[in-house]
Every structure is written in structure tokens, then in C-alpha cells.
């Protein structure tokens, strides 16, 4: 970070390069009512118009913010008006930008170079947030923006996927209330995931921003209404470890198995078995397609366990032979306990 310090102390000779001249007046100040070392103390601009209305100074503003972040770990308070992700996520962004700046040679002097720095350092965040931070610093949008392969996650490159898999979902922890029975559940995927990021509609981002503003103004009725609208659009704001995450909802049907309905014999026991396997845990789903009810049909993996195999071997589900011909599934279901719970034994035809 010594190079940033040189930019503001004048130790480097940049000739007539105005981008590196220190700006006049302090840019940071403690928010009213906060003290050093006592709770959060986000900083705000002082003696300047609000960030939403004042023009930013491109590279010099970015360098000031990086310098301040290095010494305080605080991000610009006004940034939240331009992005939807949490303050915790923004801290990670600035850490990445700072690291990229220190490793960049030559270091950025023009708005185009600063934009490229940010775009490279934050290539995996939501596209709307990336555009928001570029807008915050009044920087140009590089073209084309970086893209990340979306057909599979980094943990499951396309070459390693079984034949027929269309894409992979890596979910947030599955809430036990989202598990309907022994062969189906609803799961949520963080929209910061590269596959999801490019597919979030602008209207969804606008609803998230409007909700944040409504809560800031204590208009909780409007905030709740916007949450309902997000839910209708297939999204939910989930709080994990104090961080709010915008997530996309997926209805999942487990491929190759069938389980009794909840009201049938062994229905509750089958559901409870699935809750024990995936409840409160993140799962990986290899998606093969959609069924007639609009559910995503896939193979489920959790804690290095193939969930369908475990459900079959424990006798809490049976092989759905009509739709799945995998011979290993027939082998999974040969246990005596499974035989006593075949569709015929349960009165299902």
C-alpha cells in the first residue's frame, strides 16, 4: 500500500497527472452518534454534497477509499445506494480490490485502468453490484465484462459431470421446513453465484434496493410488501450469520426414487430421514431437467453422501423404475427393510 501513500504525499513524480494529486478537504468523517472503538462507525463524506448527487473524482476517490480501508477496514457509507449486497460483502470487495491494486503493474492512472482493476478484482460478484460500484466511482464500463462459465460450479467442472447433467446448483443451507417429503424439497441458491448473477432481472435488484431504503426510513409496511413481491418473483432474502443474502428458489425432485406422501404410511418417517440427511446443510444438485410440475429433477449430494443411495438403503424410499433405469439403484434397494416398503406393500400402484 506504500504506493498509494506515495500518490498522496507527492513522493512519486507524476508530472502533470491530476489523478494523483491529493484532494482538498477531508473526505471521511465519523457518522453522527458513533465513537471510535464502540460498535460500527461507518464513514461519510463531510463538507460535500451527498454521494448520490455529487460527482465522484474517478481514480483519486478510489485511491482515497483504498487508503482509508487499509487503515480502518471501513467502506464508503454511500456505496449502499448503488449496490444490493451487504456491508460484509462490500468489505470483501475492497479487500480484493486492495490486493489487486498492490499486485498491479503498472498501477492505474486513468478511469479506464481503474475500471479494469475493479472489474478484474470483482469478476465473481453479481453483475448489478459490479455495475453499481463502477457507477459509484463514475468509471466507464469495460466491454466486454468478464464472464464465468455457468454450466457448472468450480467444484464440478463440465468434464467431470455425468452424462445428461444440464447444470449444477450449490445451495444455501436447506431449512427443514422446506423439506416436503422423502423425495422433494425447496432449496435456495445465492445470487452471487456466477450462474445466478447474470440471470437476476433488473426489477428484482430494484425491489431489493427499494426494500433497503424503506427500512432505512422505517417504512416497515412497504419493506414487508417488497419481501412478498420478491417471494412471488421466486427470490428470498435470507439472513445467514448476520449477513442478508438475496437467493433464488428452486423446487427439487430427487431423481430415481419415490417416497410415500406425508399422509401415507411411513410418510413422516421418510421425510424425517431426509431432514436428518440434508436439514440445515448445503447440498450440491446435478440437475437433469424439469418434471411436469416445474420441479428440477436431480441427484443430490451432501457431506460427500449420495442422498438417494442413503434413502434407498435405509428403506425410506424405493427405486422409481418407471423413470430411472440405473441398475445401481435396484441394488441400493434390495435390503430387507426396503422390500417391506415397496409401493405394493404401501398400497401404491
Automatic annotation (TrEMBL):
Residues 21-43 are annotated as: Disordered. Pfam families: SNase. It comes from the Eukaryota. PROSITE patterns: TNASE_3. Residues 179-318 form the TNase-like domain. This is TNase-like domain-containing protein. It comes from Urochloa decumbens.
